[in-house]
């Protein structure tokens, strides 16, 4: 609804300011992933409402932005998170494909 649209506008503003301020790519990518995770899981009925209550991507992104500007942010932390999320996404894509290949082999190539 309107709250999601407002949140997306605020998110895009925070991320664009981070880019303009020279925040590291890893930190910006983590900010984008925070928004993506918030949007994706927030769209699930009921569970999404609970998730939105607990996971505040804009609050997290502001903390990342402030830490990066002050020099307190460790880029390894951001890149580790990015690699973890990408690994999970790759597994979520690969596992159903591998299962489908296995089922096709069982059905047609006995």
Q: Helices, strands, pairings?
A:
Layout (H helix, E strand, L loop, with lengths): L1 H19 L4 H18 L4 H8 L2 H14 L4 H34 L2
Structural class: mainly alpha
**Global geometry:** extended
SSE series: HHHHH
Calculate Rg over CA atoms. Answer: 18 Å
User: How many strands appear in the DSSP assignment?
Assistant: 0
- Helix share of residues? over 70%
Beta-strand fraction estimate: under 5%
> What is the residue-averaged pLDDT?
89
Oligomeric state of shown chains: single chain
N- and C-termini, Cα separation:
51 Å
Can you tell me the residue ranges where pLDDT is under 50 for at least 5 consecutive residues? none
Structure write-up:
This protein is an all-alpha fold. Helices cover 85% and strands 0% of the residues. It has helices at 2-20, 25-42, 47-54, 57-70, 75-108. α1 (2-20) runs antiparallel to α2 (25-42). It starts with a helix and ends with a helix.
What's the quick description here?
This protein is 85% helix and 0% strand. By secondary structure, it is mainly alpha-helical.
Structure characteristics:
extended, mainly alpha, 110 residues, 5 helices
